[in-house]
Amino acid sequence: MEELANLKSDEQKALLAVVRRLQGLVTEVLNPDDFQKIRHILLRTVEADALRRDQFGLNPILFDLQTAVITAEEIGLNRASIVSILLHDCVSMGVVSIEEVEREFGEDVAHIIRGILRVNELYARNPSIETENFRDLLLSFAEDMRVIFIIIADRVNLMRQIKDKGAVEERTRVATEAAHLYAPLAHKLGLYLIKRELEDLSLKYLEPDVFYMIKEKLSATRAARDLYIANFIAPIEEKLKGTGLKFHIKGRTKSIHSIWQKMQKQKCKFEGIYDLFAIRIILDSELEKEKQDCWQVFSIVTDMYRPNPKRLRDWLSVPKSNGYESLHITVMGPEGKWVEIQIRTERMDEIAERGLAAHWRYKGVKDSGSKLEDWLKDIRSALESHTESDEQLVDRFKVDLYSDEVFVFTPKGDLFKLPKGATVLDFAFQIHTTVGSHCTGGKVNGKNVHIRTKLQSGDQVEILTSAKQQPKRDWLNIAITPKARAKIRQSLTEQEMQVSTFAKEALERKFKNKKIEPEESIMMKLIKKMGYKHVTEFYKAIAEEVLDVNTVIEHYQEMVEREANPNAYSTEQRSADGYVATVPDDHAGGNADVLVLDNNLKGVDYSLAKCCNPIYGDDVFGFVTVNRGIKVHRQDCPNASLLRERMGYRVLRARWAGKGTKQYPVTLHVVGHDDIGIVNNITSIINKEKNVMLRGISIHSSEDGLFSGTLTVMIDDQNQLTQLMKKLSTVKGVKNIAR
User: What is 9-206's CATH topology?
Assistant: First the structure.
């Protein structure tokens, strides 16, 4: 493949290296003539001048070869997947047809290429996966699990190479998507090493200061950490050697991303995080003795170090749905530090590192891939049923990706696996839809409980039902599992349809009694005029007696008269009594000339989020709400990380353009010494500022001689705010001022 053109000198070296590496990895996987056939097709692609570098300037052939190495070496996929990666670009460029690929390499390769091309088409339509095409992305994934593995490998490869390439905006988009979609996918498939790398690289691109700060501190403390690990494992090694077990022990520092998450969760600095590493004891055991050996090691370790019973995690007895098996314990080590220990076998370790694909390497071991196939079937059925909106489907999908698991039992001893946080109501729907729909409560370990009671691993649960019970809307605030929420929504929709049908029949009878034949077109205009967006809402209001049937008929007759005699109603007079003028809120809506959303989209209605009160000049993003349009948030909004993590598909890029034409309210928090005249000094500075108006002030003194309070000011833009805050911080006695 060294004849390939359009390669820089460093790329040519990389190409030779990656080809040799791939040949060494897949000689046992590919057919003898596969490499020659692939090389011939790639040369045809070069000769056709069909190669085009992507937005990061990466050569597609070299990139695909690198992705193929990741797929073979780090995931362990077979021939069909490797060939598909190398040829899908050639098919998309029209150099080779999918039929020719099928003839030369088989139907399996062609099938995977079709899946890859569908995903690539989605990204070509829109560089980020938004709600409207997320359904199509899932459909491509759900058809063949190998497509998911390949796209994850593609993302890992891209994340490794974009450090100094492309625009910052593009890197940010790729990194955000890797963190919020592909890292959770890798976690679901048990690809923990890849998940860890995606999260770390995402943090590196999105929060470089944080990433390098933690990296430097880890390097600075490495010697002390290594010494502690060595002292900790030395007596364990000595004890285990006396048992005759074959094993090796290694200490592993936790990922930078996981340390950052702990710092945020515990609201502390790096120095406040103590469990920076985990000890892994890996046994070389025969298959039938794996569990016995692991529990033997557990016994030895807990005899030497005091365990924390609340931190025991037994994934030996009941493995995770992605096949993960291990025994986790936390013990009190030297210097009073808690240390996490993971006990597993070589087979379990490879599955933990490489995920589901590693199962296929172990003949005679029951493949837990069926559980993941069930998950994909669940996604497929949701896609086909169309009972959920796109937003609901995406939320459901992400809940499935992120959730940990609890294991509960029926009174007969049947085991059920549910996401952490699942309630009695979730369990009822897990048993059967009919049981869930008629659930009134339950018994957990023999005690009567409410349907909202959260379940814990090991609970024995009995469901109580009543034939009169029906799903209620507030059940959606109780259930967290996708199945339960989907069934509740479906039942509520059916109930609303029944109510609407009943109300519609009642209205039609009333019309008939008054000998009026209603016209459909006028009726629809009336419903819209009365403020109802949907017909079902209108009939629901009648059924709940919020809307009187006689009033509806009166309005209908009036509308008929208006349409028959439009001139009689052309100039309507009204008194001042009861007149209300709607005054627009200057600070709620957006100006199309100063804010640009997404891909240079202007003129779209938006409002400024109350949680962070963005102003002109702030770094901002847009968020598509369900029923309140587009909300604009500051990038450092307290809710920003949560919105991106849980609903990143609704986030839009946004930037200010032109010149701001209005003022914005900003609340400043000020803390200082409670000196005489300090408040006057603060307000005096604000009053002297041009185009700055003090709108509100609230000051509270404390017994320690300090005061704290808030100032609400009207500001033109972010630059003006920065200057004002600098001036206020110079006031004698002011200790801190922040937005």
Answer: Hypothetical protein af1432 (1.10.3210)
